Amino acid sequence: MSTIFLVDQKEGFTPNISHLVSMMNYTRKTTLEAVEGLSAEELDYLVHDEANSIGMLLGHMAAVERVYQIITFEKRFPTEEEERTLSPGLELGEKGKEAFKGFPLEHYLEELQTVRNETFEKFMSLSDAWLFEQTDWWWNQPGNNYFKWFHVFEDEINHRGQIRMIKKMYSKELVR
Fold first, then answer.
1. Which of 39, 41, 98, 172 has its CA 20 to 30 A from that of 164?
2. What is the tens place of the pLDDT at every residue in 114-155?
3. Handedness of CA 76, 135, 93, 55 (dihedral sign)
4. What is d(CA 148, CA 121) in angstroms, rounded to the nearest whole number?
5. Which residues of 87-104 are buried (b: 16+ CB within 10 A; e: fewer)?
């Protein structure tokens, strides 16, 4: 906590990876604060039939991080089996509604932490040069690993905003 607002050197990581870890830590801290104490009912709440629940969004965050582990650490795309496993979290929709319902908050928090531990463990073995390795990315444009991991926490920030909005709408629903 004493360094949560510092983008600085983190023990065990190279300088540039430390900066990435700093930003990921802050993002995750604020996500955890946004969901703290939520019940399974709140996690499953749907604003409308086509909406995502908070539980679905938490499942999405874990799935996105996992797929980026595969793409950047293993330098490949997911297998068919991995795609089947990850698709509810990546695609959301009906698959997500079925897969992410009825779980307590701890279920989601454990999954997020497990995936993050794997990410940081791998980051500790990588050099700063790895961050700048390029591949063809979206729209056949070059993308580097730094951008790809920026996108992981940028996506989390986006969905954290949705989580905050869903919480407000749930609270208003209770007042009706």
1. 98
2. 999 999 999 999 999 999 999 999 999 999 999 999 999 999
3. positive
4. 17
5. bbbbebeeebbebbeebe
